């Protein structure tokens, strides 16, 4: 690793093109999550690692009939190239989806994309010169950190607590960076049911975050794939609802419908959206007409709000089981108790290392994502992300029991050799190393 | 425009984020082709502008039944995230497709993408630092020039004639650039049924091109969407067939099946393919499982070779009609007579400007793509690309008649005011301004 936490250029003499890669290619390295996909695919492993939605809960017949209808009524259009911005009908329907979170936008400013990941990539491509700073929560989405690195951004984390991003920490971080003459391009934030932290930005903090960014002329990139998947109260209104000009908003059908279509979107201020369309056309010409039309037909035909309610029920039950099992089997750890989304963030005593522990966990047939994946600066060693979205409740119970075997084995080992009990460690003030006080 | 032909940063005071864009964003400008999509969609206009395949010739029922089968037998897999490299079954089938052009690769080295455009984007992202040189034919594919600009490459054109890229011109261009200390990253080439030039790289030139690149350690990026759409003789073996380690090969189902699925691929040397997968995962996580599985099922079920034969028949007839109509109505112009693909490249007398003429053409209800779209350096003013892939033979006849009205009107006007006949102009030796000698 270089001093700023970016992996050094990989490659070797076996690659004749080694000397020819762009500098940015050095930011491409296999993430922990990627390596885990292979592990998680073995059926005997309970994977608490991935972020796969439980698509088996979908009304499959309705999706098939949506496809048939699209092909029967508009086959040649569905099979053809489309507009780079995406099909107008779907963009209209996306406005209805966003209205549920207080957003009132124009269909002109919606750009559909190959999953919201592509929109994230394109916004980064539009704004980031090498060395520019992107602010992100500590921890943050592993896939975003990967994109930011691939454009040679410096990701600077901002502390969060159980109420989400801390405004005062944001203010101080900006002042500190500005004092160093650094160029801050945007704040990347997941306000609702955070991946991986599982917390939600408090309603009263939202205007304050926006005001801080506005004063400092920092764009907000609001990533909200889980907003509609709340377990109790709906999430507060989106940041975009409060500030149409200062926010690029990213949405997705991957969690509320299905990721296999790769349909997401961005809602951007008009001038940004103009450039975003050009960037999208450059990258892929146009998103899949067929995928967009099937999603559109599904939205027109299905009671999609009720389907999202069904997903909520499934995920809430799984989250409850996971939190209960953690309390039963791993009471010496701390964890967040999310009100929505897919993830619980678990903090272990400081002497444990989740990445080093992973092979032992896989041997015990349970997988998770090590906390270091969610930091650009090497933090997160004694944290992990557990996802409850895909495994059944029974699998979750088994998985947590297996995880307890591994963690307790590690702690026993440390106890034996160090002669000091792990529970005597004082909690750290950092979110990475200690959970928010009232969550567990 | 700046001196190197790159448009200056667009934007204005109405965009509050104007000062925040990355430098590369200045390379994003609306292409001629993009503006024409809007025009071409008006039903009264005969569009000879776009590159839309004639998807109505597809066996629609078979595609519907492929979808149904995928959903019935593997619904949850089709709706889920997949691997970043693409599904193995499809990658195996892609080997069969490429074998038709003499390519023998490993399934491990195939990466599927959101259309081959995405693979083009990712390869460029992997290799290009700002200021690096990409060599490309003169003219070259407008969408590639757009991608290259978006990564701040300098595109340097290499002359071609009716046998394709000229080896001696390639050698001289490389020597000239090396003499200036420029860093050449790759040669981008469309060897078969070139877009827009309509010519094919002669078989005997292929080993020579490869040898020149090998000696100069220049990667070849071979873009071959049209290779199987030959009208008479099949195209010579692909460059990739002759040099597995020096070529990244791009293929697509957009022209042989349908662009609406957005399924293309890259076949790359092993080390490059490794980075390509990481870049793809960063950009979109994974390509659409559903799209890939439908294409895979179609390939397994349909007689896809016969379907490609049908496409060949349709396109050959349309090309014949276009060339015949050009001979009848516009004998004073020159054009290429392609042996496959989608496009005829038309060269007008030097005093005509195809971009300036376009509004008049649209008023006459015919559209084409001005030649300047296919050059990074402002050339191509008196050339245009006519596509015969989408309009019917009747529409092509009408379109060429309308085009003749416009061209002849322009020539009359010039004749009247200049007092000199347009046909007295000597032909230029440049491919851009004069056609290959034996083609018309």
From TrEMBL, chains A, B:
Pfam families: Aminotran_1_2. One of its GO terms (biological process) is alpha-amino acid metabolic process. Its cofactor is pyridoxal 5'-phosphate. CDD domains: AAT_like (cd00609). Residues 67-403 form the Aminotransferase class I/classII large domain. InterPro entries: Aminotransferase_I/II_large (IPR004839), Class-I_PLP-dep_aminotransf (IPR050859), PyrdxlP-dep_Trfase (IPR015424), PyrdxlP-dep_Trfase_major (IPR015421), PyrdxlP-dep_Trfase_small (IPR015422). It comes from the Bacteria. GO terms for molecular function: pyridoxal phosphate binding; transaminase activity. SUPFAM superfamilies: PLP-dependent transferases. Keywords: Aminotransferase, Pyridoxal phosphate, Transferase. Belongs to the class-I pyridoxal-phosphate-dependent aminotransferase family. Homodimer. This is PLP-dependent aminotransferase family protein.
């Amino acid at each position: 690793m270089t001093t700023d936490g970016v992996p050094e250029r990989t490659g070797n003499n076996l690659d004749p093109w080694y000397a020819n890669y762009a500098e940015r290619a050095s930011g491409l390295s296999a993430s922990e999550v990627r390596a885990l996909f292979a592990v998680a695919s073995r059926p005997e492993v309970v994977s608490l690692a991935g972020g796969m939605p439980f698509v088996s809960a979908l009304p499959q017949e309705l999706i098939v009939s949506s496809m048939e209808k699209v092909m029967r009524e508009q086959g040649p259009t569905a099979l053809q190239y489309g507009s780079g911005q995406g099909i107008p009908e779907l963009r209209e329907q996306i406005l209805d989806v966003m209205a549920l979170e207080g957003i009132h936008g124009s269909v002109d400013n919606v750009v559909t994309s190959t999953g919201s990941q592509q929109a994230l990539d394109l916004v980064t491509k539009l704004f980031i010169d090498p060395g520019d700073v992107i602010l992100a929560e500590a921890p943050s989405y592993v896939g975003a950190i990967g994109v930011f690195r691939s454009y040679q951004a410096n990701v600077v984390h901002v502390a969060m607590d159980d109420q989400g991003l801390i405004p005062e920490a944001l203010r101080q971080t900006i002042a500190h960076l500005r004092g160093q003459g650094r160029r801050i391009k945007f704040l990347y934030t997941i306000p609702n049911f955070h991946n991986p932290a599982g917390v939600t930005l408090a309603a009263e903090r939202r205007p304050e975050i926006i005001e801080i960014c506005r004063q400092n002329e920092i764009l907000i990139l609001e990533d909200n794939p889980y907003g509609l998947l709340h377990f109790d109260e709906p999430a507060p209104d989106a940041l975009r609802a409060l500030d149409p000009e200062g926010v690029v908003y990213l949405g997705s059908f991957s969690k509320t419908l299905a990721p296999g279509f790769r349909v997401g979107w961005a809602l951007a201020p008009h001038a940004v959206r103009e450039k975003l369309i050009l960037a999208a056309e450059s990258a892929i010409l146009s998103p899949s007409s067929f995928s967009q039309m099937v999603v559109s037909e599904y939205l027109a035909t299905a009671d999609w709000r009720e389907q999202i309610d069904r997903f909520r029920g499934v995920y809430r039950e799984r989250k409850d089981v996971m939190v209960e099992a953690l309390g039963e089997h791993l009471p010496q750890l701390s964890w967040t108790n999310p009100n929505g989304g897919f993830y619980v963030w678990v903090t272990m005593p400081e002497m444990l290392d989740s990445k080093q522990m992973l092979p032992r966990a896989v041997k015990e047939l349970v997988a998770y994502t090590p906390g270091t994946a969610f930091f650009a600066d090497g933090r997160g060693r004694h944290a992990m992300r557990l996802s409850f979205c895909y495994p059944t409740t029974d699998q979750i119970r088994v998985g947590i029991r297996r995880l307890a075997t591994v963690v307790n084995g590690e702690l026993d080992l440390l106890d034996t050799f160090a002669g000091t009990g792990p529970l005597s460690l004082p909690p750290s003030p950092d979110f990475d190393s200690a959970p928010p006080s009232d969550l567990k």
